[in-house]
Amino acid sequence: MRKITIEPVTRVEGHGKVTIMQDDKGNITQTRLHIVEFRGFERFIQGRPYWEAAVVVQRLCGICPVSHHLAAAKAMDVVVGAGAGDGLTPTGEKMRRLMHYGQIFQSHVLHFFHLASPDLLFGIDADPAIRNVLGLAVTPEFTDIAVQAVMMRKYGQEIIKATAGKKIHGTGAIPGGINKHLTQEEKEQFLNGPDPMNIDKMIEWAHAGLDLLKGFHKANRAIIDDFAFHESSHLSLVRKDGALDLYHGVLRAVDTNGNRILDDVDYQDYLTYIDEEVRSWSYMKFPYLRSIGKKDGWYRVGPLARMNTCDFIDSPLAQKEFELFRAYTGGKVNNHTMHQHWARLIEILHSAEEMKRLLNDPDLYSGELTTSGARQSEGVGLIEAPRGTLFHHYRVGEDDLIEMANLIVSTTNNNEPMNVAVNKVAVAQMTGQREITEPMMNAVEVAIRAYDPCLSCATHALGRMPLEVTIVDQDNNVIDRKLR
Amino acid sequence: MKILIYGYGNPGRRDDGLGVLFAEAIQSWAADSELDYICCDSNYQLNIEDADNIAAFDIVVFADATVEEAIEDFKLTRLQPSAKQSFTMHSVSPEFVLDLSARLTETPPEAYLLHLRGFEWDFMAKLTDKAASNLTAALEMMKPLLSSAEEYSLATTVDLLNNYCR
């Protein structure tokens, strides 16, 4: 038996490695993706005043602090009696939505234009040194794409800064609402700023990104359709009427045949429906639907899942693209792992359309900022983060201090799907192979990357992550090692 | 001449906030000293949009916490553009930002990285005593350099900074 390990080193937390076991005939007998999830944060926040949570949770992750900020704020809305997500003032809810769609926009743009599109445009087998936005920038035919990536990211970051108050440890969302309005100057800047920093240019470029992917798909069906394909269930929030909604809704899950296995339930009761399994070989838990059980109750979250669970998209341009997306699989559940990128681009377009609609809404510029009601002892806040459904659950004592916190982050929800995707790639690429080649490493990386996992937590100084590939035999003798 | 001090890291993770605290301290000092050619910015980490953000400046000094044991307190290095990228996936290095800026703009800045030695990375918005001491020492070194830029040309200021690079 041989063991192949793909391991990022120098990690204290948030690290991941891939272990692939081969028997003596070269058959893949087992694959495991290990990600060290940091759980200490839930203990850390116990004993702190509940109103600090929305700011303090941003210490957890420097990659998607806005998602944690908003999920915690939504949970604390319940605690202050402001309702679960839909009880805020119009200004409070719409400012938060603008913040969230700004974040989705910039996060998805980074993923597709910086990380995914170079894989497609240069090929999965290409040198990793050029498979990024810099590779696009130095290639004349792709330079415009690099410029678009940079400026779209910048636009989303500016939206976050304007709504959250600042880039680090934003304070915009507070229990029961928001702490500021948008100004008329900011409205003018975001709607009608000089090219390219205006919303119409963002929508135009979002569309261009979709055209880029669809063009590549047309010419390379096998890569986009077959790579890391696997069947699964899918879970996300949807709006009560079935529309795609990344900020608030009810929990819906469908199985691989499209049957509803979680039928629009109130997420305050998530523990009734979802549990987490602990496996001896992994620090990260494995969530599953209680009604299905540990073995088959796992599900995917994220852009692909959201396209599978929602009935429609409530913005015209994204709805047209959604119809094309659904038509490709004849209306059936889409299990093509690489279609995550297609779904992500539809969400970029939808986010841009939503930002335009919100920026033109007068509620952003005046109106009550907060509301409150009867104090509650417990609250759950869910949000569709860029990588998928994010759960925050808190219990607060009569002394206003947090007694219990439970977080299920998007990457945890995708734990089993990522393991399955890695297995599919390993079997396809490494069966019978005695050495790990660069293209094999790339393939594993691309399969993991499709889920856009958050492998890096907040402490970036410790988080620089070379990729180490080690092959050992059954006696743990190193046969081969590669470092990227 | 325009100079940008860009600190990055997470001030909610103890010494990881060294870069951000350095930028904030310089911002406060520059405002008090009316050195309006000095601008400051900060974020959790660097990303691709920073290629555009730095393009408006003649000199950029990135400030970041480091775990390198070979650095006793702090170290200034001159940056060269580099396409090297880690598997971290959601952030890029200052060298990468500089390289991308050079590719997409006509006038990339002279760029430096101030490495500030940190020691603890827990969930706490407070530096360790040793890190706070390193921050103070770095500020004492950088302030005279930055204020002298008011009198000197860009070339001279770059020479001065280069003299402090190790």
Let me know the number of strands of chain B: 5
Beta percentage of chain A is 15-25%
Shape of chain B: globular
Instruction: Please report the distance between the alpha carbons of the first and last residues of chain B.
Output: 24 Å
The largest chain-to-chain contact, stated as pair and per-chain residue counts, equals: A-B, 53 and 41 residues
Largest sheet data of chain B: 5 strands, mixed
Strand order of the largest sheet of chain A: 3-2-1-15-16
What is this structure, in a nutshell?
By secondary structure, chain A is of the alpha+beta class. Helix content of chain A is 41%, strand content 19%. In chain B, strands 2-1-3-5-4 form a five-stranded mixed beta sheet, covered by helices on one side.
Give structural notes.
The complex is a heterodimer of chains A (484) and B (166). Chain A has 484 residues and is an alpha+beta fold. Among the domains of chain A are: 2-38 and 417-483, no CATH class; 230-335, no CATH class. Helices cover 41% and strands 19% of the residues of chain A. Chain A has helices at 40-44, 53-56, 65-79, 90-122, 133-137, 143-164, 184-192, 199-219, 221-226, 270-273, 303-309, 316-328, 339-359, 410-413, 415-430, 438-449; strands at 2-8, 16-22, 28-35, 173-174, 177-178, 233-238, 250-254, 260-265, 274-277, 286-289, 299-300, 378-385, 388-396, 402-408, 467-473, 478-483. A five-stranded antiparallel beta sheet of chain A has the order 3-2-1-15-16, covered by helices on one side. Residues 6-14 and 457-466 of chain A have low confidence and may be disordered. The mean pLDDT of chain B is 92. Chain B has a five-stranded mixed beta sheet with strand order 2-1-3-5-4, with helices on one face. Chain B has one domain: Rossmann fold. Chain B has 166 residues and is an alpha/beta fold. Chain B is built from five helices and five strands; from the N terminus they run E-H-E-H-E-E-H-E-H-H. Classes of the chains: A alpha+beta (484), B alpha/beta (166). Chains A and B meet through helix 1, helix 4, helix 5 and helix 6 of A and helix 2, strand 3 and helix 3 of B.
